Amino acid sequence: MLELPQNIHGSPEEGSPEHPIVLKGVSATDFEALMTVLYTCHFSSQKPAPEASLLIPAFRLANMWGFSDLYNCLLSLAETVLGDVDKIVFAREFDLQAWLGPAHKKLCERPGPITTEEARKLGVDSLLLVSRLREQFRPPKPAGESTISYCQSCAGVHRSIGTITCASCRTRVSPGYHHNNSPHSASTGMAISEVINRWVVDGCVWKERNLYEPVIEIEEVGPSDELELELDPGA
């Protein structure tokens, strides 16, 4: 009664140490993450920490095997707990284009620089975009430039009337400039979003072009939605 069931050829069915179930295309670490999520959600009071190292592999298998309830649950959780860099990595793997713009924008606007580990995760194209935009909207004045002006929000600094000590060269100067403590204005944020949305439309590759060319808005298409294109015969 306790013996393994036999198949028609007389050998044990899959599921024994001698005849394990082979899950092609599934890594042991991904499967372990999925089991951790499923077990702790249903049978344990100790919930797993919602970290990228657990969420992403579990979501990968939920997506692969069509576990719709788990897919939606983990997707909502990922949107809440993942950092901006991990959201970009997540969005690339699972083709969530609507996530790319907001996550890149936050990296462009945050006070702190990109860390080495973040740069490795982002890759060259995303790192180039973020670097370009951080330069564009907090720029030093190029040599010889006399006809282009920037608002305080885009420049990222404001003028100080008194004498200050420069944090870089330690020179005492008057007037000086301070980094803005306030976030970008709405118009600056909109300008950054337009460039990022255009970059996403271009396949996440930086192209040298006019900063103010029209941009196509990105809308997320759900798994059950159909994308329909209507062509103009006269175009």
UniProtKB/TrEMBL annotation:
Give the span(s) annotated as Disordered: 1-20
Which superkingdom, per the lineage? Eukaryota
Q: Under which name does UniProt file this protein? A: BTB domain-containing protein
Q: In which organism is this protein found?
A: Rhizoctonia solani
